[in-house]
């Protein structure tokens, strides 16, 4: 096994959450930059990071980083990297690219140069001129930022938000990675009530239940690097077996998702059922105005409608005002609201204790955080 460098990529604003997740997994030597956290490990850490990271988008294997201002430089330095230690003779490999503020601004040319440099490397190793590309998948990325090229191979395949539980969806579902981050940015823990009164397809309650029961988010899916010889089958089996053992199977949670739309509740139930969490989350069809709050020290985390479409603004304004009224007397609750609506605080009638800028897909949003008191120690 060798020392390798891995990059957990993240959506803008979630780097600190990904960093905290990596620290909790035991990684210490972390470099946090815009949209990514770099950490060190061995081949065994590829399954660990892919199975356990909740808020990262992907895990990339960092092959090298260097300055490149000409195509010759890009070719030579790419060719010098140890591609042949990873990519198999029958490996299928494609090259993706991006370039920001750099002399090498043509992405398609940079991709072609990198592909050629990798092919030349593999020709020398496998003593062949022709590659079938019918085997495991290796997605290479050349990312050039201010003339510094970073070359990676994607170990994840489908983005890590694809947990494998979403069988049904409704309009504007939250990305699973973002929902997991919202929960981790809150004061919720598995002994407190979690309520999402606008739960839609159930992403926030389901992610909370997975966190509460310590279910590895990647346990129900496969990853591109499972076909790579250097990441041995045994590593994947060990990490999966350990994840099963670490699951808090009988832990009793208090998680409620409600929504006015009964189709959404049907979808949420199906999603929860597909991952065996139907007993752990109560889903109810209800207008949030009719919710009776029985518990104390609950945590509300929600993603209400934003009113982005023409004609919806008035309705959403009314909804935010009514949220202010409905949640007004919840003195012991902590309340978290994600919305793109910049008037939220004035409509809701209260200034947030903290506001965090995030992105929901391409939409710029704020995460309004209202902190309640800590629950008394049991
Ligand atoms: C942005 S979506 C939430 C998406 C959800 N987070 C998910 O991941 O699928 C907003 C939800 O609010 C619901 N909604 C709108 N008005 C409501 C009301 N008065 N009471 C409860 N839910 C409402 C909609 O039916 C919709 O499902």
Describe this structure in words.
The chain is 30% helix and 23% strand. Strand 5, helix 4 (107-126) and strand 6 (137-145) form a beta-alpha-beta unit. Helix 3 runs parallel beside helix 4 (107-126) and helix 5 (176-184) packs across helix 6 (203-212). It has ten helices and 14 strands. The protein has a seven-stranded mixed β-sheet with strand order 2-3-1-4-7-6-5. A seven-stranded mixed β-sheet has the order 10-9-8-11-12-14-13, with helices on one face. The protein has helices at residues 15-24, 45-52, 71-79, 107-126, 176-184, 203-212, 233-246, 262-274, 313-326, 344-348, and strands at residues 4-9, 31-33, 36-41, 58-67, 92-100, 137-145, 148-154, 194-196, 255-259, 281-285, 299-302, 334-339, 354-360, 363-370. The model has no long low-confidence stretch (mean pLDDT 96). The structure holds S-adenosylmethionine (SAM). S-adenosylmethionine binds at residues 170, 172-174, 197-201, 203-204, 259-261, 264, 287-288, 303-305.
What is the structure about, briefly put?
With 378 residues, the chain is an alpha/beta fold.
Beta-strand content estimate: 15-25%
Q: Give helix and strand order, one letter per element, not per position.
A: EHEEHEHEHEEHEHHEHEEHEHEE
Unreliable segments of 5+ consecutive residues: none
* Count of individual helical segments: 10
The helix-and-strand class reads alpha/beta
Q: Which shape, going by the Cα principal axes?
A: elongated
Ligand inventory reads: S-adenosylmethionine
Major sheet description: 7 strands, mixed
Share in helix: 25-40%
| N- and C-termini, Cα separation | 46 Å
Mean pLDDT: 96
How many strands appear in the DSSP assignment?
Answer: 14
């Amino acid at each position: 096994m060798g020392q390798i460098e891995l990059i957990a990529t993240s959506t803008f604003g979630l780097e600190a959450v990904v960093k905290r997740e990596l620290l909790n997994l035991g990684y210490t030597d972390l470099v946090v930059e815009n949209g990514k956290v770099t950490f060190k490990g061995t081949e065994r850490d590829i399954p660990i990071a892919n199975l356990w990271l909740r808020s990262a988008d992907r895990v990339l294997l960092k092959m090298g980083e260097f300055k490149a201002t000409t195509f010759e430089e890009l070719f030579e330095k790419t060719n010098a990297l140890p591609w042949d230690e990873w990519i198999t003779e029958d490996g299928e490999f494609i090259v993706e690219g991006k370039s920001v503020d750099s002399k090498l601004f043509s992405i398609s040319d940079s991709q072609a140069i990198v592909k050629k440099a990798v092919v030349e490397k593999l020709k020398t190793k496998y003593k062949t001129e022709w590659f079938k590309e019918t085997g495991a998948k290796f997605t290479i990325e050349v990312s050039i930022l201010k003339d510094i090229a970073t070359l990676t191979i994607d170990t994840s395949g489908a983005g890590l938000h694809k947990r494998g539980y979403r069988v049904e969806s409704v309009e504007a579902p939250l990305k699973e990675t973002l929902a997991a981050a919202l929960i981790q940015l809150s004061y919720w823990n598995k002994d407190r009530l979690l309520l999402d009164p606008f739960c839609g397809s159930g992403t926030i309650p389901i992610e909370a239940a997975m966190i509460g029961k310590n279910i590895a988010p990647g346990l129900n899916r496969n990853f591109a690097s499972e076909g790579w010889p250097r990441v041995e089958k045994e590593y994947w089996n060990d990490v999966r077996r350990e994840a099963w053992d670490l699951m808090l199977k009988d832990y009793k949670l208090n998680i409620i998702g409600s929504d006015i739309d009964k189709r959404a509740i049907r979808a949420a139930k199906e999603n929860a059922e597909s991952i065996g969490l139907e007993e752990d989350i109560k889903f109810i069809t209800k207008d949030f105005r009719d919710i009776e709050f029985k518990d104390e020290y609950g945590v509300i985390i929600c993603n209400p409608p934003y009113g982005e479409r023409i004609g919806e603004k008035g309705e959403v304004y009314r909804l935010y005002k009514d949220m202010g009224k409905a949640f007004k007397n919840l003195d012991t609750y902590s309340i978290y609201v994600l919305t793109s609506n910049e008037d939220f605080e004035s409509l809701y009638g209260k200034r947030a204790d903290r506001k965090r800028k995030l992105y929901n897909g391409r939409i710029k949003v704020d995460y309004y955080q209202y902190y309640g008191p800590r629950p008394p120690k049991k």
